[in-house]
Structure prediction request, 164 residues.
Amino acid sequence: ERDLTVMLIDADVAKPSVAKTLGIEAELGLTDLIADSNLDLADVLLRTDIDRLTVLPAGRPDPLATELLASERMVQFVAEIAARYPDRVIIFDSPPVLMSTIPSVLAPYVGQIVFVVQAEASTQASVDAALSLISGCNNISLLLNKARDLGGAERFGAYYGYER
Prediction:
């Protein structure tokens, strides 16, 4: 959607990567905003060189990050951004589900989860276990990533006369 503004929130507080990937310098972010009631979203939200993209970095490491994200203050923050920015797509980038408790804490706050499954690496058992951990969200879509092209139009390559 070219006309929508996106707010990308780095909720992978143990291994934040969004700011670095975008070449943004950031000290404060999500953990600081939730931990310090004197901070305002405007104090930590960053503009980018990408039109219509703002970023909320992960913030400083906090040993109680999961508890912060499960706190009443986080519930208030999510309600605030939903009310303040009804015209934005708000994306929470989280750590892998089976590596952290943060995705299961965030699941009830979000309207949809895009769950990325690596082809030929993710087992059915691990996918099932991960999906059960994020079942607090009612709308979960799976995205198959790194699938190899096995050749042959009978699989995915032929569609209304188009060939790969």
About this structure: The first strand starts at residue 5 and ends at 10. The mean pLDDT is 89. The beta strands are 5-10, 46-47, 53-56, 88-93, 113-118, 140-145.
